[in-house]
Amino acid sequence: MATVEMVMPKMGESVMEGTVLAWLKNVGDTIEEDESILEVATDKVDTEIPATHAGVLKEVMAQEGDVIEVGKPIAIIEIDGEAGGSTPTPEEAPKANNPVEKAEEILETAISTASASNGTAVPRTSNSGKFFSPLVRSIAKEEGISVAELETIDGSGKEGRVTKNDILDYVRTRKSGGTSTSIPTAAPVMPSASHQPMPVAVDGGDEIIEMDRMRKMIAERMVASKHISPHVTSFVEADVTKVVAWRNKTKNEFFNREGEKLTFTPILIEAIVRAIKDFPMINVQIDGSNIVKKRAINIGMATALPSGNLIVPVIHNADQLSLVGITKKVNDLAKRARENKLKPDELQGGTYTVSNVGSFGNVMGTPIIMQPQVAIMALGAIQKKPSVVETPEGDMIGIRSKMFLSHSYDHRVVDGALGGMFVRKVADYLEEYDLNRGI
To answer: What are the start-end ranges of the E strands in 63-213?
Structure first.
């Protein structure tokens, strides 16, 4: 019998580590290739990881709650015959997203004898349907936390699950009499020793909220992006009266024919894609002293989650999609992002990103670039404004629908001329919209 080493796979662009949430198989269990054997959480998505080989799970090298870097070993699998070839690299490792129907039964066996200190067993699912992982139940047992108390903890995990950090925060608060009196000992978000944050004075009535895993990662990446890329932002106010008129005229027919709501976002993304074709040096990335001109046009769309965090699913090959195709992709990705059902490959490969700040009523913004991209555009709210309109009879004042386009770009490779011409071209496509266009 031979053994192979299974490593933490890559689960998204710039994802460098994952947290083991739960093992779906026990040591000694027989497993099939591509069968989900553990659940892993990253800052972008929670997903189930499949076995890279069929055989027997001989050794688990990462425990629940451990944070493991991509490419590091997580398990040893015993297989028949000789180990043919090397263990797949993180890029080659399969990405599984299929649910395991018996996962809860497998998890239950790991804690079948667990009970709280008061003698009452902690079930895997409460009366209200709230799921508690083996790790959470183990901590609850050690700390004497009842099921009723667990019910009161707001979970930040998948489908509202209580995570290790959630229950540890609760334990700290309970031990301090209901309020925290010291700064959490988590590592600072700032990545550079030369840019340390100022000390924070904490008064007795202040509330201290520890960042969840996703918020920490977002903070680190936003700070890192500002350090990596010298950001410049150009603004253009676009007259989108024709876009508004066409969308209002078409949206009911579009819904009846396609079963999809037609929002402004896919129309705006379509204009951005057309402009990228005109200015392909916006669709680049930097590799050391080299500029990588990307062939594919993959549009990331920043999406706000119910938790308040942000995720960026990607519309791959957006230039090959019709407006109907873009609309269906936008609606599908946004819906599954809010439901935490995105697949890992839907979160990687972006070459340009769009952020719709107008959905929050903001008229403009200065978005931060998603590394390793070199540009991002914020779409402001559409507002009716009095505006000068040129007519054959002369200039007149009319009511026009207008919006600001805010284009942030990396000044290392995108100069003001290119950055400014690009956002102006997007505005031109919107202002010249064909009112007689079909669906």
So the answer is: 67-69, 73-79
User: Is 411 considered catalytic here?
Assistant: yes
What SS3 string covers 283-304?
Answer: CEEEECCEEEECCCCCEEEEEE
CA distances from 68 to 20, 126, 266, 273, 428 (A): 8, 30, 37, 37, 48
Which DSSP letter does residue 2 get? E
Main-chain phi, psi angles of 218, to 5 degrees: -60, -45
- Rounded CA gap, 202 and 408, in Å? 36
Burial-class residue 179 by CB neighbours within 10 Å (0-12, 13-18, 19+): exposed
User: Could you check whether the bond before residue 372 is cis, i.e. omega within 30 degrees of 0?
Assistant: yes
Which sign, positive or negative, has the C-alpha torsion 411, 415, 416, 418? negative
Contacts of 409 (CB under 8 A, 6+ apart): 231, 232, 233, 234, 282, 369, 374, 375, 376, 418, 419, 422
Measure the CA–CA gap between 160 and 130, rounded to whole angstroms.
Answer: 8
Average pLDDT estimate for 415-430: 97
415 assigned to active site: yes
Count the neighbouring beta carbons within 10 Å of the beta carbon of residue 159.
Answer: 12
Distance CA 104, CA 125 (A): 9
What does residue 4 show for φ and ψ, rounded to 5 degrees? -130, 150
Tokens of 421: 């011409």
Q: How far apart are CA 303 and CA 176, in angstroms?
A: 37
Active-site position among 287, 415, 428, 434: 415
Going from the C-alpha of 88 to that of each of 9, 93, 312, the distances in angstroms are 9, 5, 27
pLDDT tens digits, 101-112 = 333 333 333 333
Which tokens go with 119?
């003698």
d(CA 145, CA 167): 9
Backbone angles phi, psi at 398, to 5 degrees: -135, 165
- Report residue 424 as tokens: 């102006």
- Among candidate residues 332, 345, 411, 428, the one labeled active-site is 411
pLDDT tens for 191-206 read 444 556 788 888 888 9
Looking at every residue in the chain, the average pLDDT score rounds to 83
Of the candidates 76, 11, 3, the residue with the CA atom closest to the CA atom of residue 39: 11
The first and second tokens of residue 103, run together, are: 């996962």
